[in-house]
Amino acid sequence: MLLTSGGFLGKSNKLYKFPIKEVKFFNSLLELRERKGFVVISYKLSEETLGVKVKASSFPPIVLVEVGEPVEVEIGPKPFKLSLQGFSLNKEVYIERIRRIKEEIEKGTVYQLNLSTRMDFKLEGSPLDLFLKFFERQPTPYAFSLDLRDFYILSGSMELFLEKKGGLIKSKPIKGTAESEEVLQNSQKDKAENLMILDMMRNDLSRVAKVGSVKVEELFKVEKYATLCQMHSTVVAQTDKDLEEILLNTFPPASVTGAPKKKAVELIDDLEPHPRDYYCGCAGFVWNEDFTLCVLIRTAFGIGQDLSYYAGSGIVYDSDEEKEWEETLSKAKAFWSM
């Protein structure tokens, strides 16, 4: 079953159910040519776009779901229990990794890097009910639940990676997280980090854009959600390229890797003991030449009772280690009541 929030359809944050006609699995972005449906693309595809080896498990790199017409639904969650089993990087190790990143920044290896931890859980109940509670606690425009029986993916993403309508392409990278709008608006650190990622996205889009068409529409805009506030900027361009060429030049998303991107992905794989798999990949609908893809943040996936949720933070030279850990935990509040 596929449930998505209305943001994928240009509608309000209500839930829509799509009948599944067929599910296909692919290994390369080139296999998406002229495909239509709901697609999930693993972070593993960084190997194809950047030529960088990354950890991966047995989850298929690309899932394509051919769907029928959506129906708006209102479903209440049934009781379930979610029990934390542990972190791939606990607080002590996460802080140690931040210090290592700062050393690499001092050397000039990277300027910014996104570091994540994996939270492993046992679920007593249905993944659907977990998703419904997740969405109830924090409705987001690009939330979805995809249950394929063999495995399932749940996401509460609020970040637009790429949207193409006709010849116009748009991206809204998020950098900056806090409990209040005022804190974000007054944070020079968050603004500097946001600007760094925006510049990366401008550079990525320039590879597929018509000359002179890349423009910044919004800068440092803060959106308020139920458990936190996020800062994003918006960049647009004109393009005549297709989905595969655009993804080959922009994937993985800049906001969840770092700068420069290739070196950041190499360092992430060294620092993180877990494979990211679908986390930090992208997902959404492809309709003929147009598409809407979110960044797979606030995302969990699993098999049966075993599932993992991922969260991270962007590290720069003046990052406060304790605050970065607190920010990471804040991104799990809507998913799991700590």
What are the salient characteristics of this protein?
single chain; 338 residues; alpha+beta; Anthranilate synthase; 10-stranded antiparallel beta sheet; 20 strands; 4-amino-4-deoxychorismate synthase activity; Anth_synth_I-like
Explain how this protein is built:
With 338 residues, the protein is an alpha+beta fold. It has a single domain (2-330), classed as Anthranilate synthase. It is 25% helix and 37% strand. The chain contains eight helices and 20 strands. The protein has helices at residues 46-50, 91-107, 127-137, 181-185, 188-206, 243-250, 261-271, 321-330, and strands spanning 2-5, 15-18, 20-26, 37-41, 62-67, 71-73, 81-87, 112-124, 142-147, 152-157, 160-165, 168-172, 174-178, 215-224, 229-238, 258-259, 282-287, 290-295, 299-303, 306-315. Strands 1, 2, 6, 7, 8, 9, 10, 16, 19 and 20 form a ten-stranded antiparallel sheet that branches. A hairpin with a 4-residue loop joins strand 9 and strand 10 (152-157). Helix 2 packs across helix 8. The relative contact order is 0.21. The model has no long low-confidence stretch (mean pLDDT 94).
Produce the secondary structure layout.
Elements lengths: L1 E4 L9 E4 L1 E7 L10 E5 L4 H5 L11 E6 L3 E3 L7 E7 L3 H17 L4 E13 L2 H11 L4 E6 L4 E6 L2 E6 L2 E5 L1 E5 L2 H5 L2 H19 L8 E10 L4 E10 L4 H8 L7 E2 L1 H11 L10 E6 L2 E6 L3 E5 L2 E10 L5 H10 L8
Antiparallel strand pairs: 1-2, 1-9, 2-6, 3-5, 4-5, 4-17, 7-8, 8-16, 8-20, 9-10, 10-19, 11-12, 11-18, 12-15, 13-15, 14-15, 17-18, 19-20
